[in-house]
């Protein structure tokens, strides 16, 4: 071969290689974005996709993917894809979930990091907001000043991201759903099973609406349906969970006898602390890094509701006792909540982009404001503050379809939770009415994300993936409910 022919061949090979490297979407094998457990069988890489698909500027983003390999040498061809909620939470902690994933016996699992979250490139973190909120805590600023400073910090984050060439409008459920569809195609997977939790259940609804091809089955846990205007009803969910607690205590002989006035005691503590907040300490790594803050009645409400989020069902069993103890004047346990108050701002930019594009444009500010006054005993209590943030986080409103129910015939397993204050069971029931081939179960004695704390739920999921056309055996849920009772010991 002469020199000119050799050069032509080299250029031809280079052009093919360069074309493959530039092609999007594509998957690139690489080291794992996070450290895996020792001896974990996994394949890692990045899904490379356009930042905005409708704009042909070739700008791309990279999303970490981890494939946890099945225990079987001949796994079934349809893996399970899981991702977290938030919006804005990283999914990478799921790489440590093998012992909690019975479907891995014969089916691979894909851990999917959503665009804009912690290990994605880019990540839409807002440390400015975290620093602002923490500074407000340190200085014990009032709520109005804290909110004002938070808005300034959010705008600073938005300005920084846009100056870096990042378009916050690209980080939404529609684009993330398209990312999942692209991943299935580039991996040449004929079928895929989905699992969404909280916000990511909404993301999975986007997938089955916009990209139903190749979706074999779906699990939706603690779901946030798109037609729910969250900020308008957020406090309703808190009150629902609290009322469930009070009613169950009254219905259980031991709890009713030990705490006959539980509901009155709870709201008495809220009123007392809102009138006279207590001093508490945020513990730093050193004494000089520790600082004092104030905890009020609204903090007490959130602290009690956070017991429903615990992976330990015993935390729920302890709530009546905790409320009663606090009412009697022992505030030591509550003071520990101070350490949960500081934040980092991780994933907040992605959260803002989703909320300001898909929630706020469809909400009624009068209904949002009413949430803090409709329950006199919780006067001033709020669940979300993002409507204010949306005044500085400039993203366009999503299409109206993003606020409408999703209907599908894809086999779907839906889990709600008895004490879910953030996505109450009624939402799951509404969702099931639109999913014609669905099975709905309410998990007793747990709150948001029941699969974290109830092994029975995970077994039901594995059974469903094996046969999506048949309802999984739910006898274990009855056993869970019968085995639990409130702690009344001194």
Account of the protein in words:
The protein has 490 residues and is an alpha/beta fold. The chain has 18 helices and 11 strands. Among the domains are: 23-120 and 168-229 and 404-483, Alpha/Beta hydrolase fold, catalytic domain (Rossmann fold, 3-Layer(aba) Sandwich), CATH 3.40.50.1820; 259-340, no CATH class. The strands form 2 sheets. It has a 9-stranded mixed beta sheet, sandwiched between helices. Helix 16 links the parallel strand 10 (412-417) and strand 11. It starts with a helix and ends in a 7-residue tail after the last helix.
Defining key terms:
Rossmann fold, two-stranded antiparallel sheet, alpha/beta
């Amino acid at each position: 071969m002469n020199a000119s022919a050799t050069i032509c061949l080299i250029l031809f090979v280079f052009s093919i290689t360069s074309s493959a490297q530039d092609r999007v979407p594509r998957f690139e094998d690489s080291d794992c974005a996070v450290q895996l457990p020792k001896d974990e069988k996994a394949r890692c890489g990045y899904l490379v996709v356009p930042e905005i698909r409708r704009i042909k500027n070739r700008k791309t983003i990279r999303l970490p993917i981890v494939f946890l390999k099945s225990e079987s040498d001949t796994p079934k061809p349809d893996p399970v894809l899981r991702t977290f909620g938030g919006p804005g939470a990283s999914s990478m902690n799921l790489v440590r979930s093998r012992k909690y994933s019975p479907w891995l016996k014969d089916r691979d699992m894909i851990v999917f990091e959503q665009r804009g979250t912690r290990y994605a490139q880019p990540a839409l973190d807002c440390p400015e907001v975290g620093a602002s909120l923490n500074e407000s805590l340190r200085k014990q600023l009032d709520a109005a000043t804290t909110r004002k400073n938070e808005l300034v910090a959010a705008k600073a984050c938005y300005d920084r991201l846009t100056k870096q060439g990042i378009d916050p409008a690209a980080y939404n459920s529609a684009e993330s759903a398209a990312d999942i569809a692209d991943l299935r195609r580039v991996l040449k997977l004929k079928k895929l099973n989905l699992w969404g939790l909280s916000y990511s259940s909404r993301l999975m609804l986007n997938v089955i609406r916009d990209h139903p091809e190749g979706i074999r089955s779906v699990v939706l846990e603690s779901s946030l349906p798109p037609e729910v205007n969250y900020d308008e009803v957020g406090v309703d969910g808190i009150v629902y969970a609290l009322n469930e607690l009070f009613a169950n205590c009254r219905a259980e002989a031991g709890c009713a006898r030990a705490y006959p006035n539980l509901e009155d005691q709870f709201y008495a503590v809220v009123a007392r602390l809102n009138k006279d907040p207590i001093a508490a300490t945020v513990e730093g790594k050193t004494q000089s890094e520790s600082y004092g803050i104030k905890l009020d009645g609204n903090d007490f409400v959130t602290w009690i509701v956070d017991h429903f989020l615990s992976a330990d069902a015993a935390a729920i069993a302890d709530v009546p006792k905790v409320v009663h103890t606090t009412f009697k004047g022992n505030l030591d346990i509550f003071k520990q909540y101070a350490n949960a108050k500081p934040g980092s701002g991780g994933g907040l930019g992605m959260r803002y982009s989703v909320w300001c594009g898909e929630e706020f444009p469809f909400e009624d500010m009068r209904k949002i404001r009413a949430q803090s006054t409709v329950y006199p005993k919780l006067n001033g209590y709020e669940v979300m503050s993002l409507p204010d943030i949306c005044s500085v986080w400039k993203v366009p409103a999503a299409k109206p379809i993003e606020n409408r129910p999703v209907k599908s015939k894809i086999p779907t397993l839906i889990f709600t939770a008895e004490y879910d204050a953030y996505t109450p069971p009624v939402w799951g029931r509404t969702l099931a009415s639109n999913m014609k081939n669905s099975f709905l179960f309410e998990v007793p004695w747990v709150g948001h994300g029941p699969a974290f704390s109830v092994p029975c739920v995970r077994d039901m999921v594995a059974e469903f993936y094996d046969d999506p056309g048949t309802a999984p055996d739910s006898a274990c849920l009855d056993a869970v409910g019968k085995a639990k009772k409130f702690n009344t010991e001194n």
